[in-house]
């Protein structure tokens, strides 16, 4: 579950507190009143979970090739479920970037490892293809001369 910014497994619930064991082994105590007035995300209530990957490439690159690479990468991963089918959408194109979002579904227990494996595979696929490049964050700094 996730309650506010705490994500983990619920170990206990009492009238006074909800005890959560985080993925990194910490024990977090959330007052029951806080938990009851917060939105709670339950990641284990359904058997499958969606992996979402936000990818930016340079707008001058081959956007359709980038879409194909993302779809191929998801299709090659044995943990990605065939239904619903993986999908890639272009969500924005600015002067320098094309932003895409890729979706696929996996079994809940495989979510974190599959997401990790997909990012590694996407990074490698884009590095090996001359037509597309992952856009890097950029900061332009200019100074004034007196």
Q: What can you tell me about this protein's structure?
A:
- The protein has helices at residues 32-36, 63-76, 111-128, and strands at residues 2-3, 6-13, 17-22, 27-31, 40-41, 48-58, 87-93, 97-107.
- A hairpin with a 4-residue loop joins β3 and β4.
- The protein has 146 residues and is α+β, with helices and mostly antiparallel strands.
- α2 packs across α3 (111-128).
- The radius of gyration is 20 Å and the shape is extended.
- The model has no long low-confidence stretch (mean pLDDT 92).
- The longest helix has 18 residues, at 111-128.
- Strands 4-3-2-1-5 form a five-stranded antiparallel sheet. A three-stranded antiparallel sheet has the order 6-8-7, with helices on one face.
- The relative contact order is 0.17.
- The protein contains three helices and eight strands.
Overall spatial form: extended
Q: Strand order within the widest sheet?
A: 4-3-2-1-5
How many helices? The count is 3
Helical amount: 25-40%
CA(first)-CA(last) distance = 56 Å
Q: Report the mean per-residue pLDDT as an integer.
A: 92
Total E-strand runs: 8
Report the major sheet: 5 strands, antiparallel
Record keyword descriptors for this entry.
146 residues; 5-stranded antiparallel sheet; 25% helix; 3-stranded antiparallel sheet; alpha+beta; extended; 8 strands
């Amino acid at each position: 579950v996730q309650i506010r910014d705490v994500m983990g497994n619920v170990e206990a619930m009492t009238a006074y507190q909800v005890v959560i064991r985080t993925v990194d082994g910490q024990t977090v105590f959330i007052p029951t009143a806080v938990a009851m007035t917060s939105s709670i995300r339950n990641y284990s209530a359904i058997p499958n979970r969606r992996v979402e990957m936000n990818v930016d490439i340079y707008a001058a690159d081959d956007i359709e090739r980038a879409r194909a690479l993302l779809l191929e990468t998801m299709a090659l991963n044995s943990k990605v479920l065939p239904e619903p089918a993986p999908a890639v959408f272009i969500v924005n194109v600015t002067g320098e970037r094309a932003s895409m979002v890729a979706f696929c579904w996996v079994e809940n227990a495989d979510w974190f490892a599959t997401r990790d494996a997909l990012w590694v595979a996407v990074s490698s696929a884009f590095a090996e293809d001359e037509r597309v490049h992952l856009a890097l964050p950029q900061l332009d700094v200019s100074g004034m001369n007196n």
